[in-house]
Amino acid sequence: MGNPLAALGLVSAAMVVLVAVVAFMVLPGPFLAGTAPVWIAPAGDAAQHAVGGWYFLADSWRMPLLMVPQLGVPGGSNIALTDSIPLAALVAKLLRGVFGTDYVYLGPWLFLCFLLQGPAAATVLYICGVRRVLPLLLGGLLMLGSPVLLARLGHAALCGQFLVLLALALHLDLTRRCRLAAFLLYVPLLAAALLTHVYLFAMVAALFGASLLDGLWTDRLAARTAIGLIGVVAVPLAGVLWACGYLGLGPIPIKPYGEWAFDLATPVLPSFSLLFAVDGMPLGLNFETLAWVGAGQAALLLVAAIAWRRDLAGVLARHSATVIVCTSLLVFAASYAVHVAGQVVLGIDPARVRAAVLGAADANGALLALRSGLDGGDMLRLVGLLILLGGLAAWGLGRAVVLGRWRALRVVGIVGAVLLLVGVLQPRALLVGVSTFQASARLVWVPLYLLALLAIVGVCRRFAPRVATTMLAAALLVQAIDTWPLWRSLLEHAHSRGRLAEHDGGLAGAIAAAEDVRVIPTYLCAHARPPELRAGLIARISDVQVLAARANRPIDSVRSARMTAADGPALVTKCEAALREVVGDMARPGRLTIFSTDTPEAVGLAGCREAPGWVYCLAPQK
Q1: Which of 12, 14, 33, 136 lies at 20 to 30 Å from 81 by C-alpha?
Q2: Looking at residue 83, what is its pLDDT?
Q3: How far is residue 282 from each of residues 265, 341, 482, measured CA to CA in Å?
Q4: What is the dihedral of CA 174, 177, 183, 185, to 10 degrees?
Q5: With a threshold of 0.90, does the pTM exceed it?
Q6: Three-class SS string for 299-348?
Q7: Which residue has the higher pLDDT, 370 or 45?
Q8: 183 and 142 Cβ atoms separated by less than 8 Å
Q9: What DSSP state is assigned to residue 325?
């Protein structure tokens, strides 16, 4: 094709049409449109996301934009904390005159994510010099079958991985041509990622940092210019944070960062794989550690590594800044405990850190509790981890000094000094920011995607066009076969009838007739109940929240991504006080009080009715 850019446009359009046609052929139309039972009666994380969306669509426009006063009364909630994909929610709210306030935009969002994944991947390949139509098409479709995407169907926000791919394309373009105007494209990318999910924002922000570092490393950016670019990007992002209410979220609990950390063995341990007969995560590994790339991508990675083995050191040296940032992401993903096949080989067991964080009132208490619980083996593994991290830091610093990369060192030093100052002046703010990444293993997606895409580029550059195209086609076929368990899960999910039963004992009608709803226990207080009762109780509370959201009734229970169960005794005391307050105010006109049947106060209540697992009491209206 004469115009290479036209090839990218043709391939992108072809992939969008192909994915759309296949989706409409194999998936129910209501699932794609957001009207299927699985969306109307969602369960698990999807229920959390839909509930926030329903309250947001039914509410009037207000500032901050994302606050909904009816969810989690009396304080209300920010739907960024319910992972309700604010970017999609804002669009849906603008169009609610067409779709209504009970619309579930999660289905169309998922559809959009799958439509854009292939073209975004093809853009990365185009930037890296792959200009022929078939390799672009096959490479894009290969990335569409990435397990880290397919395994995220229950968490729609995290399916927006096309944003990471677009940021990768921008970063790789800037490594070739360091243009100041191109850096401004990070502003909409970062804003879109921020309004999708905080993990995606962190990944795009890391790539923005990699682009700056590369410009400084290659002396194409002055230190002053880099600092200026940080400011230029930060100002509009601060405006988005303010307008959406991120800056006024109130006291946020510290969570145990790295509880679900990256396991170094997972990239080579097949997961959800048909070819390796692994229907799930192997060796009891946690789902969050999923880093298997699929048999097709793995085969290409192996072929590319062999074909480029003599040139690999030179390629890495030319892209030192990218290597440093990707290594930093891997370190952050692994957190404070290096896992290999489920075993902690360096650092501290996350279970021990969780107990220390959740069992202490503040950061100092957590550190003291953690230190007092360490034995000799823990100390030995911790020293080993510190030696490893020190070695990596010394390698990066030493390479910068030897090569005379003083601009990069200057800017990194300034940024580090600012973070240190924040840590001294506002230690809790810094700890809250770090603790946001409880599932730190997700941050490995950036180097994972980068390696898979560069493997495609390497095959296209090293082999003759016909041979490379054949290899990509074979890899795509192998990838499709290997990831069949995940595709099957998508089909099952699309045809699911949802969580809520058709007969709820009249609870839906009572909620619709009420002015407001109180639940005993709330979602948070369910964690104060015995562990063996929590799973079923939390699922029933989620059902109540779905019913209240569909009726747009104020409710005191909210499931939030930032919510965490603090130490047991304090939580029990807090929930007992909340119970007394709710019981004392049951007679308020229009108040619906819903008790779990295992609550002693639910026994012998006059004028109340029963539903499966609940006793509910509706005070008459005035």
Answers
A1: 33
A2: 92
A3: 10, 9, 15
A4: -80
A5: yes
A6: HHHHHHHHHCCCCHHHHHHHCHHHHHHHHHHHHHHHCCEEEECCEEEEEC
A7: 45
A8: no
A9: H
